[in-house]
Amino acid sequence: MKITHTMLNDLLDRVPRPSGVLYLSQDTDPHALVEDLASRHGEPRGLALDGTVAPDVNGIDGTGLLDLLEGRAETVVAWAHAGEWLGAGTALDAQGDIVPVLAVTPRRINERFPGTAGRDGDWVERLIALTGWTLPPQRPDIDWATTEARMGTRLPRDYKRMVETFGEGAFDAYLNLNQEPWDDFQKDGLLVWAGTEHENLYCWQTDDNDPDRWPVTIQTLDGENVTFDGSTAEFVCRILVEKDHPFTMAHYFDTHWFMTYRTNT
User: Fold this and answer.
1) What number of other Cβ atoms are within 10 A of residue 138's Cβ?
2) Considering the entire predicted model, what is its pTM?
């Protein structure tokens, strides 16, 4: 049975909240279900395969979904989405039949943002904690020396760590992290390290010889440049949580995540 956009929304609405499981009819294609959800939420994390729990799964990675299934999970994957873990796949129902399943459980992040406690410390680590990121580095072997030689400039160290850690995707499924800065505006002293669907460009002003001192500059859709002091990772942390920031994302979600883009279909 083909799952339409409206049908998928209806199924998700039927999953009991805040925690619950929805067993689906056997004419629902579990592979199509997972693929349709992946088109919305990005690359999923594997929780169970052929009845065996993935060895690298821990509490923050959605094992609450497995607890809901009470040992009946067959093949289940999960996505982090704001304050929820969303699971999909197959599990044994009460009659012992393998059927498609959807499950939801709360996702809690223990990290408290340090607010204005100062700019010392590791902002990349704060960003990792703030998004509840527990996966291993996604792109640890990037040849930055070659990239920097081609671009004719060194790049900020925290940006490089962000790309190595998170890989391709978007913070809160909104702020797209460029895997290499765009140099379209380099003649204006700007390199673009991120962007949004609203077409704001998140840049650095590259006048300083030390890239770790480059301020973040937002080029808005109407061409205005707005500059902020501080590092790249600090800027992302602040727009995620500070509701009075001019470019805040904090009005949309209280719990944050990084959506990894789909790499295979």
Assistant:
1) 18
2) 0.90
